[in-house]
Design brief:
The protein is mainly alpha-helical. The protein is about 55% helix and about 5% strand. Helix 6 (about 125-135) packs across helix 7 (about 140-150) and helix 6 crosses helix 9.
Length: about 200
C-alpha cells in the first residue's frame, strides 16, 4: 500500500470529512486530500500585506542608492560632473578596481574607501571627488570628507572653493588631469556630452 511505504498506517489518518479535533495538526481539504498544517505558519493575509508594504516602499523610493540619472555633483564643470556620474556606474560594476584606484593613486586606505561606499549618503563619484580634491589641495581625504559632510548644499563647487581649489584654478586643472589619467588606467572611454 502506498501510504504504508511512507511509514503511515491508513487507520491513523483522519478521514477527509472528519471534523477537526482541537489542537490537531491535520486539516481536511475540500478536494478530499489531507494536508499537514503547520500551526506556526503565518496567516496568508499577513504575508500578502507585508509583501505589498515592501513593494510600496521600494516603489516610493525606499532604495538607499542614487541612480546615475539622479546624481548631481554640481562641481561647476560639466565635464567633471559627467565623469563623476560615470564613476558611479564603474564602481557599481567594479567596486574592487575602484577601491584599488583610490588606495594606490590617491593614498586612501582601501578599508576607508570600502566603508565610505557602504554609506548611503556617499556615492563613488563623491568619494573620488573628495579624495582627488584632497590630493590637489594638499589635504588628507578625511578632511575633505568632513568638509563635504559639514556643508554640501551648494555641491562640490562650493567645497572646492572653500579649499581654494575652485573651477579654473591650478588645483582644479590638476584634478581634471587626474580624471583623465584614472580613465586611462581603467582603459575606459571618456564619457561624452551625449551620455
Amino acid at each position: 500500500m502506498a501510504l504504508e511505504s511512507f511509514g503511515r498506517h491508513p487507520a491513523l489518518l483522519p478521514k477527509p470529512c472528519q471534523a477537526r479535533q482541537p489542537g490537531s495538526s491535520v486539516r481536511p481539504m475540500h478536494s478530499g486530500a489531507i494536508v499537514r498544517h503547520n500551526a506556526a505558519m503565518p496567516n496568508k493575509r499577513i504575508c500578502r500585506n507585508l509583501l505589498i508594504g515592501l513593494l510600496l516602499a521600494v516603489a516610493a523610493g525606499g532604495s538607499l542608492a542614487q541612480s546615475p540619472g539622479e546624481y548631481s555633483p554640481r562641481s561647476g564643470d560639466a565635464w567633471i560632473d559627467r565623469h563623476l556620474t560615470d564613476i558611479n556606474a564603474y564602481a557599481e560594476r567594479y567596486p574592487a578596481s575602484f577601491a584599488d584606484e583610490m588606495a594606490r593613486y590617491y593614498a586612501v586606505p582601501r578599508g576607508y574607501v570600502e566603508a565610505m561606499m557602504k554609506q548611503p549618503d556617499w556615492t563613488a563619484g563623491d568619494i573620488y571627488m573628495a579624495c582627488a580634491l584632497a590630493k590637489v589641495a594638499g589635504q588628507p581625504c578625511r578632511a575633505v570628507v568632513r568638509e563635504w559632510s559639514r556643508d554640501h548644499a551648494e555641491g562640490w563647487q562650493s567645497v572646492a572653493e572653500r579649499l581654494e581649489a575652485g573651477p579654473g584654478s591650478a588645483p582644479y586643472r590638476r584634478l581634471r588631469q587626474g580624471l583623465t589619467e584614472t580613465y586611462a588606467r581603467w582603459s575606459r572611454p571618456q564619457p561624452s556630452a551625449r551620455d
